[in-house]
Amino acid sequence: MLARALILLACALPAAAQASTRECAQSPGKVLELCVSVADGRAAYAVTRRGTPVISASALGLAFAGEAPVRWTALTDPQRSDVDRRWEQPWGEQREITDRHTEMRLRLEGDTPLNKSVVLTVRLFDDGVGFRYTYDAIPAGQAVDVMADNTEFRTVGDHQAWWYSAWGQERDEYLYGQTDARRITTAETPLTLKRQDGLYLSIHEAALVDFPSMLLTGDGAGTLSARLMPWPDGVAAKKTGPFTTPWRTILIGDTPGALADSRIELNLNEPNRLGDISWFKPGKYVGVWWEMHLNRSTWASGDRHGATTANVERYIDFAAAYGFSGVLVEGWNVGWDGDWTNNGDAFQFSTPYPDFDIAALAAYGRERGVNLIGHNETAGAVPNYERQLEDAMAFYARYGVHEVKTGYVRHSGDIVDADGGRQWFAGQYMVRHHQHVAEVAARNHIAIDAHEPVKDTGLRRTWPNMVSREGARGQEFNAWGDPTNPPEHLTILPFTRLLAGPMDFTPGIFDIPRGGAPVTKRVQSTLVTQLAEYVVLYSPVQMAADLPENYLAHPDAFQFIEDVPTDWETSHTLQSEIGDYVVVARQTRGGQDWFLGAITDENERTLSQPLSFLDPTKRYEAQIYADGPDADYRTHPMSYVISRKVVTSADTLPIVMKPGGGLAVRFRALP
Fold it and tell me: Active-site residue among 109, 205, 476, 569?
């Protein structure tokens, strides 16, 4: 009788009191399943796709200073829910985002004080998963040192990987290599993989706030382990309880385009905290920048100073004449003289050089509908910047500047904190710093375009003034790189770096021959590829990076840059093979026109592209910018042909791309 009563009591207990060894959840369309298990002191998760293993049993949890390795003992309190909602971006590659996922929350119980009770939250989408830890049992205010993230990604099968080695002096500004994934040492994320059966994965993180950036270390046999960028004393993260980690994410798809068109990064971030940000307008800009990289003028003061009132007025006039909303000015403030990369403490962020009249230029631009875009280079001297940050943003706000490009170039690659400690560029110290900059900027109605940044993790949803970042090998390497970026670089970025978020690549170089420079010391593309970059490489702020006179020498090709927008209703990656080619189409936000960009690697390529993405009820004039018959990035990069024809959604567009070439098309909706 007593035994029967105990059984009945156990059945009546709430879920919170039930312990299990395995709990599973499926994505809304039952495409993916993620199971969490506890056995033999180990907590692990595994992922299958349509019944086929993708990630085998992989470790979970964090390790703390002063504690022995945790033995996990139980899973309790499983809770499940379903979400199907839509939300709108104030700007973006897609106006309306669908958030459709299954959530499973459960509690991991361990045998150490800090790991005795941890909430694991899992969200499953049909195109990927995200999970994170909440240490809600750590008392409020208790300081803890996280020494390691034990999360593993034990991939199933043989994979190719696109990656570069982490810990580099040049931050994330490296070319990607393609290797067997078992050759990965330590890689940055997003890390993109292709399995031998054609399945694509990308491992990254979302909502990186007050935590160090995650790297991935390989074991030579297919297992990738989280590695956190540490503080100088070796601690990975310094937290106070309770706290929640960023999401660890895995995108999963049949094609590279399925990864590129996923919106998981955004959906795993919190909603907009700024409310109305109508003070920021996506747009295109020109500026005093490329001329310095070509050594035609200098950031430093003197006879060759680029940021003079007269020179900036020239750029404002050009911007006003051709519909650009902004002019970027670098080198305007005191601090650029001498070896600035190692003397960042000399920068003064609200003191212009005498030959730069910001008040007059702001008024001059305002009369012509053009805004100044600010620039704050710190040379990695973060304490110096933070001491001046409030004044610097207030200074810009006084002159109607609503966008600031920040930079953290330092010759050694290190960031030096107030105590002289050498910080990693994406450790917790710098994650905190970039968040602080964004928040101060937001209070002054200023958007941030960060160069040498912490990688993007979808925070632009929560803080939509985080509009763009660099964080990869951009156009500037085509001015002085040795070698410059090879053609395949542009066909890799959309499926690696750009999976994290918008990139300020600074496209649009027209003076490709550069006076007969060797091909590996100049832009390695055709002119049409430079047009296609505006569609393929997404950013809400896009620079026409070349000198005005080079655009005026090719007004017919320049027309595409004038026409292409930077804010989109929807976006589709139509065809792709990483490292070979990519075709992207985007629809103008709130409009009917579509734009298409296609880029190939060093190989000539012909594709057939159905136009089924167009509105079937409309006719369009296709304005086609194509490589010329003899175009070749090595020998005839300036050869192009412009044509027009009427098309509908029932038509197929031939895409003929010459070596290093591309295609750019505007589909103008006809009445």
Answer: 476
- The answer on pLDDT for 312 being more than 60 is yes
Mapped onto helix, strand or coil, the DSSP state of residue 661 is: coil
Does residue 586 sit within a domain?
no
In order, the DSSP letters of 495-546 are GTGGGTS-B---------STTT--GGGS--S-HHHHHHHHHHS--SEEE--S
66 in a structural domain? yes
Residue-wise pLDDT tens digits, 30-72: 999 999 999 999 999 999 999 999 999 999 999 999 999 999 9
CATH number at residue 169: 2.70.98.10
Tell me whether residue 348 is in a domain.
Answer: no
pLDDT in tens, 315-356: 999 999 999 999 999 999 999 999 999 999 999 999 999 999
pTM for the full model? Answer: 0.96
- The DSSP-derived string for 131-191 is EEEEETTSPTT-EEEEEEE--EEEE-S-EEEEE-BSS-TTTT----EEEEGGG-SEE-SSE
pLDDT band at 512 (very low <50, low <70, confident <90, very high): very high
How large a percentage of the chain has pLDDT more than 90?
96
Nearest to 540 by CA among 94, 98, 87, 86: 94
Question: Which tokens is 431 given?
Answer: 């994650």
Range of the domain at 240: 16-267
β-bridge pairing 283-288 and 620-627: unpaired
What DSSP character marks residue 638? T
Residue 3 located in a structural domain: no
390 is catalytic: no
Instruction: State how many domains the chain has.
Output: 1
Q: What are phi and psi of 341, to 5 degrees?
A: -65, -20
Got the DSSP string for 246-279?
A: PEEEEEEESSHHHHHT--HHHHTSPPPSS---TT
